[in-house]
Design goal:
The complex is a heterodimer of chains A (265) and B (387).
Chain A (H helix, E strand, L loop, with lengths): L1 E5 L2 E2 L5 E5 L2 E5 L7 E2 L3 H15 L3 E7 L5 H10 L3 E5 L9 H14 L3 E7 L10 H9 L2 E13 L2 E8 L2 E8 L2 E5 L11 H9 L4 E2 L40 H14 L4
Parallel strand pairs in A: 1-6, 1-8, 6-7, 7-13, 8-12, 9-12
Antiparallel strand pairs in A: 2-5, 3-4, 9-10, 10-11
Chain B lengths: L6 H18 L3 H7 L4 H13 L18 H11 L4 H4 L15 H11 L5 E4 L15 E5 L2 E12 L6 E13 L2 E12 L5 E5 L11 E12 L3 E2 L5 H9 L2 H26 L1 E2 L2 E2 L4 H29 L5 H26 L9 H12 L6 H13 L6
Parallel strand pairs in B: 1-4
Antiparallel strand pairs in B: 2-3, 3-7, 4-5, 5-8, 6-7, 9-10
Helix pairs in contact in B: 1-4, 4-8, 4-9, 8-9, 8-10, 8-11, 9-10, 10-11, 10-12
The chains are: A alpha/beta (265), B alpha+beta (387).
Bound molecules: flavin-adenine dinucleotide (FAD) (2 copies).
The site of one flavin-adenine dinucleotide has 18 residues of chain B, from β1, β3 and α12.
């Protein structure tokens, strides 16, 4: 059994989103480079743990993106993934989530023995959260979203815990599965120095369209969803009021009155 | 000339910065308040540093270290400079000089230190011998298979958390072309050896929580097997291994200054006086420009000296220039930072004031600025000697 983690390279969490004439850009004032999608760090960690604790033979990181997405894959290797695969082809550019899912599904089919596929909850830039379910649909595997724990993998089944708004749910399903994980699932480890060195010595294979058996259209031409208008939300006007008082109790009482007045509570 | 970092170096920087932000910076205020690092916190930092391979990153891979090249090491230390000296100390870089260990010393000192089981400190300075180290008065007199050591060392950093000292002592005199000179021998001396006591040193204004100690040797007997390097050739070992520790100081200063500048940028952009952010005044914004420029210059000097080290072409004056410029730069940057913050720049709640306090020692330890200038100028004038 192999576990595959799908990850996307995104701007860092400190990058600032801006739109200029409909063109989106992410600028990081601290000059931080693009990173593994922050939600995916939990997915990478969980993939490594599936190997460590649930007997997977290999943890493999997979990304579809431009050649520089290699950097995100190196981070996955440095954290402890055994292998990384980049899926890249000029014809993939401009794919919508369905196109992305078709490409990823084809790559996953090519990985012999992949039984558990782990995604992050969503990408911090695209933010649709659609890719995992669409990949599952393409593969015909069971999708399980919002996973907060992998409890057991036994024979042909996997038992998972899902974290929902009002509670938790335990789900048992047959393998193979495609899951997306929430941040409560673990605490991602740092890439170690040993890992960083290993990652930089590794060669990361690139699979192109010709290497895959993709069913359905991909790339800008095939995108059914069109981003007709992207704009930054105008900044909200707000004001700050500092509540004065002689004691903490007095300040709290004044604050509670205010909150009632404003119908916040 | 290629001034790009490799992917590996970029990843190291990214990783160490995250480590500093998550594992060290949250404890800064506690360390300032308590003037120390709790033993549990010391252990926690060491354990994490060991787990992720940061520990003893200056030591070769085959000995169990991370085997970083000097440029990578400087980048790592630059990132560690962004936090409290007392905290980052536990992400240890043992003194490179222990690489001179031979025979049984390897198992007793070198390897356990790299594994984080033992901890070193380096004892050179004395009340009457600071810049003039060769003037040291601590004596080592041979008696059969032992040396008997008598004297005092002061300002010995982190001896309170070390379990052995790398001690330099005068082991005799020799006649040289320039007159009589003391012969110096370096020893490995375990804490707890009879005749060797350690007590807390002076309360200094810089790097709260990072303590210096006074080491007292009173007829302390050390076997000749504990000589580090060659008998009477202590400064040869020191020169071979300690030159690049001045780069650590320089790298630390660059990281410190970068963090200080970031705080200043934010303050200058948000603190409003006379109806506009103070950064709109050139009196403030030009300070930022000077800070950024000098930080960059110090960084390149430091990286250049590191790169030369990796090429086997570093000279003493390369280290001296990096150390001199980076420490003087940090003094300027932290002083201007206090100015930009105004009264809040002097409030203990504000990290800027401790950066300003901390900066002061950098121009003194590991060779004062004057001694660095001495090294640089001597190199400049050497070709004209004997003409
Ligand atoms: C140049 C460019 C042009 C685009 N044009 C269009 C367009 O015309 N129409 C349109 O609808 N969208 C377009 N997109 C958006 C693109 O379709 C989505 O970014 C992508 O499908 C993933 O969706 P998401 O970002 O919402 O990720 P989510 O679905 O929120 O991500 C969930 C999980 O899936 C993983 N994942 C997402 N993408 C990948 C990937 N490529 N490889 C591995 N794992 C992945 C994430 O890392 C995360 O773990 C474009 C993107 C780019 C970069
Ligand atoms: C917090 C702290 C920690 C320390 N940790 C250690 C440690 O772990 N191990 C260790 O061995 N030492 C340590 N030191 C000692 C440090 O290395 C010395 O303080 C330093 O070398 C200067 O020596 P000194 O203080 O005796 O000053 P002095 O040598 O007395 O110098 C006084 C002044 O005279 C100037 N001066 C001296 N000679 C010349 C000259 N030839 N030309 C021009 N100017 C000159 C100096 O630059 C300085 O301005 C530490 C010091 C401090 C403050």
């Amino acid at each position: 059994m192999k576990v595959v983690v799908c990850t996307k390279q995104t701007p860092s969490t400190t990058a600032v989103f801006s739109v200029n004439n409909g063109a989106v850009s992410w600028e990081d004032s601290g000059g931080k480079p693009n990173v593994v999608n922050p939600w995916d760090e939990y997915a990478v960690e969980e993939a490594i743990r599936v190997k460590e604790n649930h007997g997977a033979s290999q943890a493999i990181a997979l990304t579809m993106g431009t050649p520089d997405s290699q950097e995100a894959l190196k981070t996955c290797l440095a954290m402890g993934c055994d292998e990384a695969i980049l899926v890249s082809d000029p014809s993939f550019a401009g794919s919508d989530t369905l196109g992305t899912a078709r490409i990823l599904a084809a790559a996953l089919e090519k990985i012999d023995g992949a039984k558990v596929v782990i995604f992050g909850k969503q990408a911090i830039d695209g933010d649709t959260g659609l890719t995992p379910v669409q990949v599952a649909r393409k593969l015909g595997w069971t999708p399980v979203t919002y996973v907060s724990a992998i409890k057991e993998i036994k024979g042909h089944t996997i038992t998972l815990e899902r974290l929902l708004e009002d509670g938790k749910e335990t789900v048992t399903t047959d393998l193979p599965v495609v899951i997306s994980v929430v941040k409560e699932i673990n605490e991602p480890r740092y890439p170690s120095f040993m890992g960083i060195r290993k990652a930089n010595r590794a060669t990361i294979p690139t699979w192109s369209a010709a290497d895959l058996n993709i069913s359905g259209g991909v790339g800008a031409g095939a995108s059914q969803a069109d981003w007709s208008h992207v704009y930054a939300i105008p900044a909200r006007e707000g004001s700050v009021e500092i509540i004065e008082g002689d004691s903490v109790e007095e300040k709290v009482a004044a604050l509670v009155d205010k909150l009632f007045e404003e119908k916040v509570i | 000339m290629n001034l790009q970092l490799t992917d590996e170096q970029r990843m190291i920087v990214e990783m160490v910065r995250t480590f500093v932000e998550k594992e060290l910076q949250p404890y800064e205020e506690e360390v300032e308040r308590e003037d120390g690092v709790r033993p549990e916190l010391q252990r926690q930092i060491r354990d994490k540093a060991l787990q992720f391979g940061l520990y003893a990153a200056n030591m070769p891979e085959e000995l169990g270290g991370a085997g970083l090249d000097t440029v990578s090491l400087v980048l790592m230390e630059r990132e560690l400079g962004r936090t409290s000296y007392a905290l980052q100390h536990f992400v240890a870089r043992p003194s490179s000089i222990i690489r001179a260990c031979v025979g049984e010393q390897i198992e007793t000192y070198l390897l356990p230190t790299i594994r984080g089981e033992r901890h070193d400190c380096l004892a050179m300075s004395e009340p009457n011998a600071g810049s003039d180290v060769r003037g040291m008065e601590c004596r080592a007199v041979r008696d059969g298979d032992e040396y008997v050591i008598t004297g005092t060392k002061h300002f010995i950093s982190h001896a309170d958390v070390a379990d052995y000292a790398i001690l330099f002592a005068a082991s005799g005199e020799e006649q040289t072309a320039r007159g009589v000179r003391k012969k110096i021998t370096s020893f490995l001396v375990d804490m707890g050896t009879p005749g060797f006591t350690v007590k807390r040193g002076y309360d200094v204004v810089s790097h709260r929580g990072y303590h210096n100690c006074i080491l007292q040797f009173d007829g302390c007997r050390v076997p000749v097997g504990n000589i580090l390097g060659v008998e009477h050739r202590g400064f040869d070992v020191a020169n071979q291994w300690l030159g690049s520790t001045r780069l650590s100081v320089a790298a630390f200063c660059v990281g410190r200054a970068q963090r200080t500048l970031e705080l200043c940028q934010q303050w200058a952009a948000t603190r409003v006086q006379f109806g506009q952010p103070i950064g709109k005044n050139q009196g403030v914004s030009f300070k930022l420009a000077d800070m950024a420029t000098q930080i960059r210059a110090a960084e390149w000097l430091t990286l250049d000296a590191a790169w030369r080290t990796d090429q086997g072409a570093a000279r003493d004056e390369d280290y001296a220039m990096a150390k001199l410029y980076a420490t003087e730069m940090l003094a300027m940057v932290t002083d201007e930072a206090v100015q930009i913050f105004g009264g809040m720049g002097l409030a203990e709640e504000n990290p800027v004031v401790r950066f300003w306090r901390d900066a002061r020692v950098e121009r003194i330890w590991d060779g004062t600025s004057e001694i660095q200038r001495h090294i640089i100028s001597r190199a400049l004038l050497r070709p004209f000697e004997n003409r």
